[in-house]
Write a structure and sequence with these properties.
single chain, 78 residues, alpha+beta, SH3 type barrels, 37% strand, globular
Length: 78
């Protein structure tokens, strides 16, 4: 299973789950990274962190450590 932090710029995936049970995982869910949501990596900051995502029609920036908590579905057509 891959995670969101491993996607290259321009790649996309579908959220399968969010790991953890703390404030960070709850915040990711509140920002729209819920199971079944399509997400695309739009860009990265010059040093690679944070990464810019497009999810549910808006853009969102998250740290790579936070993106590593987002598990992506494998082999699911978008």
């Amino acid at each position: 299973m891959s995670s969101l932090d491993q996607l290259a710029v321009g790649s996309q995936g579908r959220v399968e789950s969010i790991t953890g049970n703390d404030e960070v995982s709850l915040r990711l869910l509140e920002m729209g990274l819920t199971p079944g949501a399509n997400v695309r990596v739009v860009g990265t900051a010059p040093l690679g962190d944070p990464i810019e995502l497009e999810v549910r029609g808006y853009r969102l920036s998250v740290r790579r450590s936070e993106a590593a908590r987002v598990a992506l579905a494998q082999g699911v057509p978008l």
